[in-house]
Amino acid sequence: MPIFEYLCLACGTLFEKLQKSAGDEAPPCPACGSAQVKRKLSSFAAPPSSTPSAGCSGGG
Ligand SMILES: [Zn+2]
Question: pTM for the whole thing?
């Protein structure tokens, strides 16, 4: 399950929450209980340049 980061717009608390899907509703702030939270874009590091296995062996 992906972990999303949320930023409370009311008190500015940054918290993480496990979400089953990206379309789930944002959880309330654990600090103040406000629903004014904004989900931050998860900018996880991309995997090292993996060579695309695009081998097109032409058959005879
Ligand atoms: Zn808050």
Answer: 0.61
